[in-house]
Amino acid sequence: MALLTPQGVKEVFQFQKPKGREHLRRLLNWEAFDELRDARRSILLDTIYDSVIFAVGKGFPWVEVVQVVKFTEELLKETKGCSITEAVTILGNKLRDYQGQFSTAHLLALCDYFHNTFIRHYRLYQYVLGQDQEVNLTVAHLEVCAPPQPLPLAEGTDREVWHHEQQLAELRTAEVQKRTNMLLLKETLSLEQAHMLQKAFGGQGPHQTLRREVLERLVSEAIHIQIECLQELLQYEIQVTFDILDLRLQRKTMSLNAPLPFPPLPGNPGREDTHQKPNKGNKGKKAKAKK
């Protein structure tokens, strides 16, 4: 209590509550403590801090505010473990002991304050402050990842424009895929054709003399194999060509209906403005017609 001065309690009142409570703890010469793990001491500090706020709010001089803090601290210690009847007696005795420290009005205000707070909730005070409490506290250290720094808005793209660009990109990708599939089919048919021809001619020896009928059959079979491969390839190329033309038509249609950027680029008025601006020549013709 040696550090508790009128100037000190004035500073406690002027600070915001967290800083004011910490300053009051130092003035009371209390050691630093963990607010979560030592809830009892935290509640005691809150009670004393509230008494400072009460006294200042009631217009107590700073000297008397110091006495209010002393009064509160002594009352909490002396009533520990007492019954409510004993607590009321102790409060009355302390008010008589301090009657020379306060004016009559302030003494009555102090009496009302402790009756309406401490005595009214006395059982709760005794339960929290008068016996040890079992505290189950779990502390988890979580890493919070901050979101990435967003790019400047000037580098952003309007949602409609971005969606339109994505659709065009999908059409271009589909066209490339069609062409790639056609090249793969050409290679596959070429290998298949070579395999079928090798199988057809595989039964003939390298120096074997072929009869006319066998030669005609082999030539006919080779031509048939080539025609089948070419027919399949031609059908697929026709289908792929139509698909590619359809994809290009979709891209052309989408390009003509592309959304306008926002904000509009300089010198690029909106479609509505373009259609609504009257032609100067037409205005002149209309004026002559009216005359």
UniProtKB/TrEMBL annotation:
Protein name as it appears in the record: Chromosome 8 open reading frame 74
Bias (Basic residues): 277-291
Name of one Pfam family that matches: CLAMP
Gene that this polypeptide is encoded by: C8orf74
Segments of this protein annotated with the region Disordered: 258-291
InterPro entries named in the record: CLAMP
Highest taxon of source: Eukaryota
Lineage: Eukaryota, Metazoa, Chordata, Craniata, Vertebrata
